[in-house]
Amino acid sequence: MTDTNEPGGAYNPETEGAEMAFSDKMSYGDYLGLSRILNAQAPLSDAPDELLFIIQHQTSELWMKLMLHELNAAREAIAEDHMPQAMKLLARVSRIMEQLNSAWDVLRTMTPSDYTQFRDALGMSSGFQSLQYRLIEYALGNRNVSMLRPHEHDPESLALLKAELARPSLYQVVLAFARRHGLEVPDSVTAEPSDAPHREVPEIMTLWQTVYRDPSAHWALYEVGEKLVDLEDYFRRWRFNHVTTVERVIGFKRGTGGTGGVTYLKRMLEVELFPELWHVRTAL
């Protein structure tokens, strides 16, 4: 065989030992299941931009799958007082949110004219119905039990949501950690998994004031507090990007799932996941 890795010749990776035959070995595509992933797009129209719409949402769902994996691991680490591991996991969750935010930049290249060519094909399907997004919101503490209803037709999805509601939220796990380490936390905040969105609690505001006024004495809580703020910062940006993308593409039409579209999404901008961590800035 001629060695073609000489100046001017075509590069042949086989001469450097690269495996080239995979009839009896696992390949890159086999490991990643690429045949299933790359054939999972089934546009229902001839509109060129429907493929963009499908892939943007499918890739976002993949990132959300990883986000849930990391959030669950972070909660377990905090519950076991393994704070360095939890910090790494929460930092990764924020980077995942950064990827989710970047996805809107691609979708915003679709114009209103592009979208109207296939919007009717979507029927009543809507991101509002995303199981994984709802699981993320529940894990982060925005627990609205009325949002179980869009999943009542699917027993498996409903069971996953109810299982999440039976677990302490990320914020509850952090506050339980604070209590174990000598800070005052009301029993009502951590005794049972929350089944409603978290609202500001005066005692929790006092807790974070104590932490932020003397970070060195409460370093683990100070660090996790900043990680939560970082995460919510990215989450707020995701919501804002969602609103502006929808307004840019459909204006103030109702969403395909029957929501008020932009009006509904703008209300979501007002949700605070960790209110005391934001409001403590004013109190310092």
Provide the CATH top-level class of the largest domain. Mainly Alpha
> In the CATH hierarchy, what is the architecture of the largest domain at level 2?
Up-down Bundle
Main β sheet profile: none
User: What distance separates the N and C termini?
Assistant: 74 Å
Which structural class is indicated by helix and strand composition?
mainly alpha
Q: CATH topology of the largest domain, what is it called? A: Methane Monooxygenase Hydroxylase, Chain G, domain 1
In terms of per-residue confidence, which ranges show pLDDT below 50 for 5 or more consecutive residues?
A: none
| Total count of helical runs of at least 4 residues | 13
How many domains would you count in the coordinates?
A: 2
Mean pLDDT across all residues, rounded? 91
**C-alpha Rg, in Å?**
23 Å
Number of strands: 0
Helix and strand sequence: HHHHHHHHHHHHH
Which bin fits the share of residues in helices?
55-70%
Q: What characteristic shape results from the CA principal axes?
A: globular
- The portion of residues forming beta strands comes to under 5%
